[in-house]
TrEMBL record:
<feature type="domain" description="UDP-3-O-[3-hydroxymyristoyl] glucosamine N-acyltransferase non-repeat region">
    <location>
        <begin position="22"/>
        <end position="86"/>
    </location>
</feature>
<keyword id="KW-0677">Repeat</keyword>
<keyword id="KW-0808">Transferase</keyword>
<dbReference type="InterPro" id="IPR001451">
    <property type="entry name" value="Hexapep"/>
</dbReference>
<dbReference type="GO" id="GO:0103118">
    <property type="term" value="F:UDP-3-O-[(3R)-3-hydroxyacyl]-glucosamine N-acyltransferase activity"/>
</dbReference>
<keyword id="KW-0444">Lipid biosynthesis</keyword>
<comment type="subunit">
    <text>Homotrimer.</text>
</comment>
<dbReference type="InterPro" id="IPR011004">
    <property type="entry name" value="Trimer_LpxA-like_sf"/>
</dbReference>
<keyword id="KW-0012">Acyltransferase</keyword>
<dbReference type="Pfam" id="PF00132">
    <property type="entry name" value="Hexapep"/>
</dbReference>
<comment type="function">
    <text>Catalyzes the N-acylation of UDP-3-O-acylglucosamine using 3-hydroxyacyl-ACP as the acyl donor. Is involved in the biosynthesis of lipid A, a phosphorylated glycolipid that anchors the lipopolysaccharide to the outer membrane of the cell.</text>
</comment>
<dbReference type="GO" id="GO:0016410">
    <property type="term" value="F:N-acyltransferase activity"/>
</dbReference>
<feature type="active site" description="Proton acceptor">
    <location>
        <position position="238"/>
    </location>
</feature>
<comment type="similarity">
    <text>Belongs to the transferase hexapeptide repeat family. LpxD subfamily.</text>
</comment>
<dbReference type="GO" id="GO:0009245">
    <property type="term" value="P:lipid A biosynthetic process"/>
</dbReference>
<keyword id="KW-0441">Lipid A biosynthesis</keyword>
<keyword id="KW-0443">Lipid metabolism</keyword>
Length: 347
């Protein structure tokens, strides 16, 4: 496939500095790019590669004087990269309207137009699959579950009974949506299981990463808001609500009944206790331990999570602890010497 720079500049709504007729045949990282590739600089730390890259053109956030390559200047290089990658990735061929002979599809299940069902997939009684959706091999769709139009459910995913997925949802391999919430009542010296009779609702345009688990509600629904993107290995507890367009990065754990607002970012390995609220637009730093509610727009980090500015000061102080300990020991030693001298003088 070949696309000229003029077309790419138009696609990305960027400003082209250089020859519009240069032909681009691929996309590559700035260190690996060669002739015919377009690359990008998304962070200033990679600016030094500008003069060494083999790429034929570079997407940048600002004009760079004396650049050795044609540039496309855009407001958001990552967004422009996504737009260009969509062109070169194209649409992968998928079988349409084919149900593999080894798949088990209940007679009471409903399949929309051009649904694909892969080998050894199971679709239980009363389940509904929307048009153009792809059910990959070894997927399990439980009784009464509903999956919308244009979804892609990757291999070995489990969509449990009664769960609802909206349109254009992507679920990656080994995700489990609708497993029982972790609910037990103390009964003497043992733990009595609380039946989890609620459901999970995943709204339109949500991406669910590999190995993600989203627990069904005890009562009502665990809800993932429209456009939210969930990275791999995330645990979302029962009755959690996640607002629209939020980002949840790998290995985050969210305890039950926590409310996450719209456009929230939860960075990698953050842990949140239950029954708290994280306001719209808040950011929780990596490995933060959130033990109380976070106000809208607030940025927190550390354990226990506090304002990022305060947490940074705490971490900075901690770097000096070894030296401070040595100073305290020297002062204690000197204080002991002074006390001995004072006692000697009194004697």
């Amino acid at each position: 496939m070949k696309v000229n720079l003029g077309e790419i500049a138009q696609l990305t709504e960027g400003t082209l500095i250089g020859d519009a007729s240069v032909q681009i045949t691929g996309v590559a990282g700035i260190e690996d790019a060669g002739e015919g590739d377009i690359t990008f600089i998304g962070h200033p730390r990679y600016a030094s590669f500008l003069h060494t890259t083999g790429a034929s053109a570079i997407i940048v956030a600002r004009e760079i004087p004396d650049a050795p390559k044609p540039l496309i200047v855009v407001a958001q290089p990552y967004l422009a990269l996504a737009q260009v990658l969509e062109v070169f990735a194209g649409s992968r061929p998928e079988p349409k309207g084919v149900v593999d002979s080894t798949a088990v599809v209940s007679q009471s299940a409903t399949l929309g137009a051009d649904v694909s069902v892969g080998a050894y997939a199971v679709i239980e009684d009363g389940a509904s699959i929307g048009s153009n959706t792809i059910i990959s091999p070894l997927v399990y769709v439980g009784r009464g579950a509903s999956i919308g139009d244009d979804c892609v459910i990757h291999p070995m995913t489990v969509v449990r009974e009664g769960v609802t997925l909206g349109d254009r949802v992507i679920v990656h391999a080994h995700a489990v949506i609708g497993s029982d919430g972790f609910g037990y009542a103390q009964e003497g010296q043992s733990h009595r299981r609380i039946p989890q009779i609620g459901t999970v609702i995943v709204e339109d345009d949500v991406d669910v990463g590999a190995g993600v688990t989203i627990d069904r509600a005890t009562l009502g629904a665990t809800r993932i808001g429209r456009g939210t993107k969930i990275d791999n290995l995330v645990q979302i507890g029962h009755n959690v609500t996640v607002g629209e367009e939020s980002i949840i990065v790998a290995q985050v754990g969210i305890s039950g009944s926590t409310e996450i607002g719209k456009r929230v970012i939860l960075a990698g390995q953050a842990g949140l206790v239950g029954h708290i609220k994280v306001g719209d637009g808040a950011v929780v730093g990596a490995q933060a331990g959130v033990t109380k509610s976070v106000a809208p727009g607030e940025v927190v980090s550390g354990y226990p999570a506090r304002s990022h500015q305060a947490a940074s000061r705490v971490y900075a102080c901690m770097q000096h602890l070894p030296d401070l300990l040595k100073r305290v020991k020297r002062l204690e030693q000197r204080l002991g010497e002074l006390e001995s001298e004072h006692q000697g003088e009194k004697g």
